[in-house]
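Predict the assembly for these two chains.
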Amino acid sequence: MIALLVEAASWTFLLLGAFLVLVGALGLVRMPDFYTRLHPAGITDSLGADFILTGLVLQAGFSLVTVKLFLIGAFLFFTSPTSTHAIANAALVAGLKPRHAVVPPRPPEKATQDEEAR
Amino acid sequence: MFAATAIALLVAMVLALVRLYAGPSLYDRVLAANSFGTKTVLLIAVMGFLTGRPDFLDIALLYALLNFIGTIAVLKFFRYRSLGDAVEEKAASRNKEASQ
C-alpha cells in the first residue's frame, strides 16, 4: 500500500515536472521580449527541475543515488537564479531596452486636464 | 513514466534550440543555452533511471557544474572581451596608446 502511494506520488511529480518544463520552453519561444523570456526560463529552472528531481528521489528510495539527486537539486537551486541574474544584469548594462516599455505615470495636473478635455 | 518525462524534456530542448537559433540578441541565446543545459542535466538523470543505471547521475552533476561556469564565462567574455584579468589588460592597452 505504501509502495503504491510512493509510486503514485513519484509519477505525479514526474509528470508535473515534465509539464512545467514544457510550459517553460513554450514560453521561451513565444514571449515577445528578452526580459519577459526570463520568466519562463525561471519556471524551467526552479519548479520544473525540482519536481522532476523529487520524482526521481521517490523512485530511488534511501541510497547514495538520493544523495546525488539532492546534490544536483541544491546546485541547481543556487546556480540558476545566479546565472539568470547575471544574464539580466549583463543585458541591462549593455543597454538592451524592453520592447514594450511601461509608460511612466503622468503628473496629476496633466491627467486632470486630459480628463477635463474629455 | 520515465519515457514520458524524457520525451517532454526532448521536446522542450528542441523548443530551447529554436530560441537559441532565432534569438534576436546575444542574451536571448545565452538564456536559451542556459535553459538547454538545465534540461540536459534533467534528461541525463531521467535517462539513467530509464535504463536502470543511476550512475549517470555523476555525469548529470558534472553537467550542472559545467553549465553554470560556461554561462558565466560567456557573459564575462562578451562584457570584457577577455577571460583573463581584464583590468590589467585595459591598463596595458592604455599605456600602449599613451606611449604612441
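The interface with chain A takes residues 1-2, 4-5, 8-9, 11-13, 15-16, 18-19, 25, 27-28, 30-32, 34-35, 38-39, 41-42, 45-46, 49, 54, 57-58, 60-61, 64-65, 67-68, 71-72, 75, 78-79 of chain B (CB under 8 Å). The helical segments of chain B are 2-22, 26-50, 56-80, 86-99.
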